[in-house]
Amino acid sequence: MITRDFFLFLAKNDFMKDKARKWGPKFGAKSVIAGETIEEAMQTAKELNEKGLKVTVDHLGEFVYNKEEAMDAADYCIRTLEGMEESGVDCNLSLKLTQLGLDIDKELCISNMRAILDTAKKYNNFVRIDMEDYSHIEATFEVLEELRKTHDNVGPAIQAYLFRSEQDVEALKGMNIRLMKGAYNESPEVAFKDQKEIDNNYINIIKRHMRNGSYAAVATHDHKIIAEVKKFAEENGISKDQFEFQMLYGFRSELQEEIAAEGFKMRVYVPFGNDWYGYFMRRLAERPQNITFAVRGVLTNK
């Protein structure tokens, strides 16, 4: 039986990652990744906007250990923001701090982020810091704290499967946060392992953040949780302007359009680039039944 841990193991396998870059986005990845270039990402964003959907794009990449590569990644993020402005799309930027040098030098990462946020501010845009594995959480919050001294157009993601998430949400009161279940293989010493416990904590932190009057980006494909958030907002007089739903590109597209048609903000997370392998493996880990995407990809890319 193919398990979640199997895909998470593959996500960190350097040999497979290197081969994947050479193969290109095959094995089903093309159905959940918007090509490899900024132009392709912007075209996908336009198509989604035409359906009433908002977008955030992510140039895939993480765990960079070379300064030049980190600087190049920052420049690519800036060019992506410029591409959004030129295309006129309703689109934000999502990124990972390890791609911008967090594991090399925190000050380098902060400098890269400031350059990105300056560009985003010029275009009245917003940047989302994706949360990575547990070992990077403290450093991520340290960088965020420094950035928030000069920029208010940046916010983090919080993962509900971590024991600390409720405390983190309370500490980040007033901030625009993406709230999600989590996609890394963490130790039982720091994370819930039971799905019901994760779901309960997820609902708890969503309601806590919304009750605080803070903006919540609810990132889930779970229709039961979506329904509960809608009901909670209605019963507590919370405006539709105070929250949005988020889903991944290529997953539950019909539901995305239904939510937007109901007058809720629905944002689609659109990854692009050639460093797609780790992202794709984590998506399969979340929903191993999506192995059918991989089989379809093999059949259509012979």
From TrEMBL:
Cofactor detail note: Binds 1 FAD per subunit.
**Which of this chain's residues are annotated to bind substrate?**
K96, R282, R283
* Listed pathway(s): Amino-acid degradation; L-proline degradation into L-glutamate; L-glutamate from L-proline: step 1/2
Tell me its EC number(s), please: 1.5.5.2
Q: Which reaction does it catalyse?
A: L-proline + a quinone = (S)-1-pyrroline-5-carboxylate + a quinol + H(+)
State the UniProt keywords alphabetically.
FAD, Flavoprotein, Nucleotide-binding, Oxidoreductase, Proline metabolism
Gene3D superfamilies referenced in this protein's UniProt entry, alphabetically: 3.20.20.220
Task: Give residues annotated as binding FAD.
Answer: M131, Q159, K181, G182, A183, T220, H221
Which cofactors must be present for this protein to function? FAD
One MF annotation (Gene Ontology) recorded for this entry: proline dehydrogenase activity
Looking at its record, which EC class is this enzyme? Answer: oxidoreductase
Q: Which residues form the Proline dehydrogenase domain?
A: 41-290
Q: Does the keyword Nucleotide-binding apply?
A: yes
Q: Which GO terms describe its biological process?
A: L-proline catabolic process to L-glutamate
Q: Which PANTHER family match?
A: PROLINE DEHYDROGENASE 1, MITOCHONDRIAL (PTHR13914:SF0), PROLINE OXIDASE (PTHR13914)
Q: In its UniProt entry, what is this protein called?
A: proline dehydrogenase
Identify the species of origin: Alkalicoccus daliensis
